[in-house]
Design brief:
The chain is of the alpha+beta class and 295 residues long. Helices cover 25% and strands 32% of the residues. The chain has seven helices and 16 strands. The strands form three sheets. It has a six-stranded antiparallel β-sheet, with helices on one face. It has a five-stranded antiparallel β-sheet with strand order 8-1-2-9-10. Helix 3 runs antiparallel to helix 4 and helix 5 packs across helix 6. The protein is globular. The chain starts with a strand and ends with a strand.
Length: 295
C-alpha cells in the first residue's frame, strides 16, 4: 500500500511557505506487475522498490500510493501524450484514474504544484479531491497512525513548544524502518521546493539506523549505527537532477539509481505501464568518476 506524507510549513527567516513530501520505496509485486515487466525489471523492483514521487517538470510533482503502480504510470503516460497541459488539469485526470480503479486502495495521489508564487497540495483519495490542503497523507492508515503517535511523543519528550513539522522527517523514517505496516518499508526519499530555482527537487539526506539499543557509559562514544550483521546501516540520498536520484548504502556496493528515463531492459523502456516511474538500477563509479550500469 505504501505511505506518502506532504506538508507546507512556515519557518523563521523564510518569506515563503516551505514544502516537503516524503515517500517510502517498498513495492510488492502483483501478478499483473510480473506480467508487464522484464525479468530483470521484476528482480530490481522486488529488491529495491521505486521512489513514489515523480518530478514531472519544475512546477509539478506527482506522488502516489496503492497496490497497483500501473495506475500511476497511466497518469504519467496521459500527461506525456497530451504534450501540453495546464497544471489545474492534473488533479482531475488523477481523480478519473483513481475512480476507475476497481478498489480505491489500488491508487491514490498527492499532486503538488507551484502556481502564482505558491506551492499547492491536492490530495486524491476516497473517490474525491481535497483541494489546496496544508498537509496530506495517502497509503497505509496504520503507518499514518504510528507516524502521528511518534510526532506527539517527540513533542512531549522535548517539553518545548515546537511545531510538528520539526519532527516530521524523523517520525516518517522511523515508521518506514520500523514495520508499522508490512506494505511500507525500504528507504525514505523526499522532494522539496527550491524557491531560488523555482523548482521541485529531490532532497539530500544522510541517515543512520540501528535495530539494537545501546548502553553508553559516561565519556564513551555513541555509535550512530551498528554493523550490518546487527541490523544497522546508513545511507545517503544524493539528488542528481529532476529525473534521477541516487541512494548510497554504506554497507552495500554498488549504488542504487532511481530513474524515470533510464531502464535496464529495452522492453521496459518502451513499456507504457512503467511510464514516469522512478525505477531502480545498480550503478558504480568508474575510474573517470562516471556512474555506469552494473546490470
Amino acid at each position: 500500500m505504501s505511505f506518502v506524507y506532504a506538508e507546507k510549513y512556515s519557518e523563521a527567516g523564510f518569506d515563503s511557505e516551505l514544502f516537503h513530501v516524503l515517500c517510502d520505496t517498498k513495492t510488492i509485486l502483483t501478478d499483473y506487475a510480473g506480467a508487464n515487466l522484464s525479468a530483470v525489471g521484476c528482480d530490481m523492483l522486488s529488491k529495491y522498490g521505486i521512489v513514489k514521487s515523480t518530478i514531472c517538470c519544475p512546477e509539478l510533482c506527482i506522488s502516489f500510493a496503492g497496490s497497483n503502480i500501473s495506475y500511476a504510470a497511466k497518469l504519467f503516460k496521459q500527461l506525456e501524450n497530451m504534450r501540453s497541459f495546464e497544471l489545474e488539469e492534473v488533479p482531475n485526470l488523477a481523480l478519473s484514474i483513481h475512480r476507475e480503479a476497481p478498489s480505491q486502495n489500488d491508487i491514490e495521489f498527492i499532486i503538488s504544484t507551484y502556481q502564482n508564487d505558491t506551492v499547492h497540495i491536492d490530495c486524491i483519495k476516497e473517490r474525491t479531491i481535497y483541494k489546496d490542503v496544508p498537509n496530506a497523507h495517502i497509503g497505509s492508515e496504520n503507518a499514518f497512525r504510528r507516524f502521528q503517535e511518534l510526532r506527539i511523543r517527540q513533542d512531549n519528550a522535548n517539553q518545548v513548544d515546537e511545531p510538528a513539522y520539526k519532527h516530521t522527517t524523523r517520525a516518517f523514517q522511523t515508521v518506514v524502518d520500523g514495520g508499522a505496516d508490512d506494505t511500507v518499508g525500504g528507504i525514505t526519499v523526499s522532494v522539496i521546493f527550491d524557491y531560488q530555482d523555482r523548482s521541485f527537487i529531490y532532497g539530500w539526506e544522510r541517515a543512520f539506523y540501528t535495530s539494537k539499543p545501546q548502553i553508553v557509559q559516561p565519556g564513551e562514544a555513541i555509535s550512530f549505527h551498528l554493523s550490518a550483521s546487527d541490523g544497522g546501516y546508513s545511507h545517503e540520498i544524493v539528488p542528481i537532477d529532476l529525473q534521477n536520484v541516487l541512494c548510497v548504502l554504506d554497507q552495500m556496493n554498488p549504488r542504487i539509481l532511481y530513474s524515470r528515463n533510464f531502464r535496464l531492459d529495452s522492453s521496459d523502456l518502451e513499456n507504457p505501464h512503467l511510464s514516469g516511474l522512478m525505477m531502480p538500477m545498480l550503478v558504480k563509479v568508474n575510474e573517470k568518476g562516471e556512474y555506469v550500469r552494473c546490470r
